[in-house]
Sequence to fold (207 residues):
Amino acid sequence: MIGRPKLVLASGSPRRLTLINQAGIEPDALRPVDIDETPKRGELPRACANRLAREKAEVALAVIREDPDLMGAYILAADTVVAVGRRILPKPELLDEAAQCLRLLSGRNHRVHTAICLVNPKEGFRQRLIETRVRFKRLSSEDIEAYLASGEWRGKAGGYAAQGLAGTFIVKIVGSYSSVVGLPLYETTIMLAGEGFPAQIAWLNPA
Fold:
């Protein structure tokens, strides 16, 4: 592994770390960034996800420029937006917000937009947006109350986590499951390989 390019994951999300690890990649550093994720007035879901992923990558780049150990590293950032039509759902921290999300998602289709932004060692930016359709079952008041009590919804786009208890609400997914969780593995590894990052080298030395 000597000489392997370094990779910085610009996220503090345990879900994104688990997913990138699933692809056999262990980031050399985690650099969570703190940006205002409030959608702009009239901003469409796709545009919002792309903008936020780009902003996260730019902030992380500014941070690692000050770190000699990480200069020249690849930077991977992502953002996930859940939307019903053009309406962007929040990443709720309050119970009432989460309840509103669940009631809106109940018995209908919604779209999950995950944007990934990769910065290569020459500070070139490459982006991709993945859209996945998800259908929820019709949620009873008991479903909603129990899920709210779990606390799993807190800080999650759309107020739910597909990889957790809310997986029991999902009737159908058309598209990338890993994108709904927070990081589309196929597109991420293709992008990394396209920019020269040896994503599969760790596969040769399984634990």
Summary: The chain has a mean pLDDT of 94.
